[in-house]
Structure formats: structure tokens, C-alpha cells
Design a protein that fits this description.
- This protein has about 270 residues and is mainly alpha-helical.
- The chain has one domain.
- Helix content is about 85%, strand content about 0%.
- The protein contains eight helices and no strands.
- Helix 1 packs parallel to helix 8 and helix 3 packs antiparallel against helix 4.
- The chain starts with a helix and ends with a helix.
- The relative contact order is 0.15.
Length: about 270
């Protein structure tokens, strides 16, 4: 018999990755990202040696980005294949998602921080000031994006629940769960603002230490993953009240989301 708890971990884990989808395709966004980085590098007024170092770094970075997106595409195809089985092997699928998708995503984020350190080593003290200024600008964008994303996440969950067509007797339970989700999300958002505000303060110091900056960003990656894990507990409670028809519909909803993201990765 399929565990409702395992089913919901499966659904929630995949939904984390739907944040990445957009009206553009992955190749377009990657090209746009590198064009933006080239523009930043030009603002540093690099020496010829620095230009050569940047080209080498950028080549390795592009390889890693493309490898991550390629692996993610294959992983989502695997998840879709597992999901299409009736009934799906939820235990196996959940293990795959946690050990591959979530693990690889966190690892990729940390690798990007390694590249940030490498870029810092290429630049001189005066250029570091410009790098920190760009970093501050990106942190501000993250804060704005997070606020919008929290609202979109609420809407996505509400839309999914609406499609599940909960019965009247199921609605009070969902109302309680949703309230706790929003409270936890608000607490996480407040913690994020606090940590990033501290990071912004450190970046404005006369001589910021890049190791401290990276350490704070690494802690935020772990914090975000913890929030995702915490959120799963609330979603578990919802699936406990779903009947078989509603659970099957939830699988169909998830398949559509996966298809949309796979199309995004294919470009």
C-alpha cells in the first residue's frame, strides 16, 4: 500500500524545482546570464591577463552549468517515468528525488560559490569594490524575488488544491494546514531578510573577507534546504485526507508540471 506521507514528499520535492520555470527556455537564460557576466567583467576594466583568466573560468563554468541542466533534464525524465507507473513505487521515487535532484541542486549552488571565490582571486583590490557592489545589487534582487516567489508559491498550492476538488469535510483540515504553511513561510522569509541584511552590512565594510561572505551564502543554502524539508511536514497532512481519485489527480497535475519544465530545459 502506498504511504500518503511518502506520496506527499514526492509531490512537494518536485514542486521545489518548478520555481525555476519561466516563459523562456534554459539555453536562452544561460546565454543571457553569461552576457550579463561579460558586461560586469568589462566594468572591471580588466588587464589582458585577467581577460584570459576570465575566459578560462567562464568556459569551465559554462560546462558545469550545462552539465547540471543536462543532468536535471535526465533526472526529471526518470521521475516522470517512475510517476507514470500505476501504482508508482513511491518509496523508490522519493529516495531518487532526495538523493539525486535535491542533493545535486544544493551541490550546484555551492559550486557557483567556488567560482565566485575564483573570480575574486583574479581581481585586484579596486576591482573587488565593484564586485561587492554587484553582489549587493544581486542580494537586493533576491530579496525582491523571494517576496514575489512566496506569493506565487501560495498561489500554486491553492491552485493545486482547487484542482483536487476537496470535499466540504476536507476543507477545515486544509485551512489549518495552509495557515501553518504561511506562518512557517513568513518565519523563513524574516530569517532570510535578517541573514542577507547582515551580509549586505559585511559587504559594505572597508575590507570584506570573501571567505566570510561565502560562508554566509553557504549557510543560506543549507537554511533554504531546511525550510524545504520543514515544509514537507505540512503537506504530508493534506495527503492524509485525500481519497484514491484525488491522489490520482495529484499525479496528473505533477506530470503536467514536469512536462513543462522538461520543455523548458530542452529549449
Amino acid at each position: 500500500m502506498i504511504s500518503n506521507r511518502k506520496t506527499n514528499i514526492f509531490l512537494t520535492s518536485i514542486l521545489v524545482f518548478m520555481i525555476l520555470s519561466s516563459c523562456f527556455n534554459a539555453n536562452f537564460l544561460v546565454d543571457r546570464m553569461f552576457a550579463r557576466m561579460d558586461s560586469w567583467m568589462d566594468d572591471f576594466e580588466p588587464t589582458e591577463t585577467q581577460k584570459q583568466e576570465w575566459v578560462k573560468l567562464k568556459q569551465r563554468l559554462r560546462v558545469d552549468v550545462n552539465r547540471f541542466l543536462g543532468n536535471l533534464h535526465l533526472q526529471l525524465m526518470t521521475v516522470k517515468g517512475k510517476l507514470q507507473k500505476r501504482p508508482p513505487d513511491v518509496d523508490n521515487t522519493v529516495k531518487y528525488i532526495k538523493m539525486r535532484l535535491l542533493y545535486d541542486y544544493a551541490g550546484f549552488q555551492r559550486k557557483l560559490l567556488d567560482y565566485y571565490v575564483e573570480l575574486h582571486k583574479i581581481l585586484n583590490a579596486e576591482q573587488h569594490k565593484k564586485l561587492y557592489k554587484i553582489t549587493l545589487e544581486q542580494i537586493d534582487k533576491v530579496l525582491v524575488y523571494r517576496k514575489k516567489n512566496n506569493l506565487q508559491f501560495d498561489k500554486n498550492i491553492d491552485d493545486m488544491v482547487e484542482e483536487l476538488d476537496l470535499r466540504k469535510e476536507q476543507l477545515p483540515h486544509w485551512a489549518i494546514v495552509r495557515k501553518r504553511i504561511k506562518l512557517r513561510a513568513k518565519r523563513y522569509a524574516d530569517e532570510l531578510v535578517t541573514s542577507l541584511t547582515k551580509l549586505k552590512k559585511d559587504l559594505k565594510l572597508a575590507n570584506p573577507k570573501v571567505k566570510d561572505i561565502v560562508a554566509q551564502l553557504q549557510a543560506e543554502i543549507s537554511h533554504r534546504n531546511t525550510f524545504s524539508e520543514d515544509s514537507i511536514g505540512y503537506y504530508l497532512e493534506l495527503t492524509e485526507i485525500l481519497d484514491e481519485k484525488q491522489k490520482n489527480k495529484s499525479y496528473s497535475i505533477l506530470e503536467k508540471k514536469i512536462d513543462g519544465f522538461i520543455d523548458f530545459l530542452r529549449g
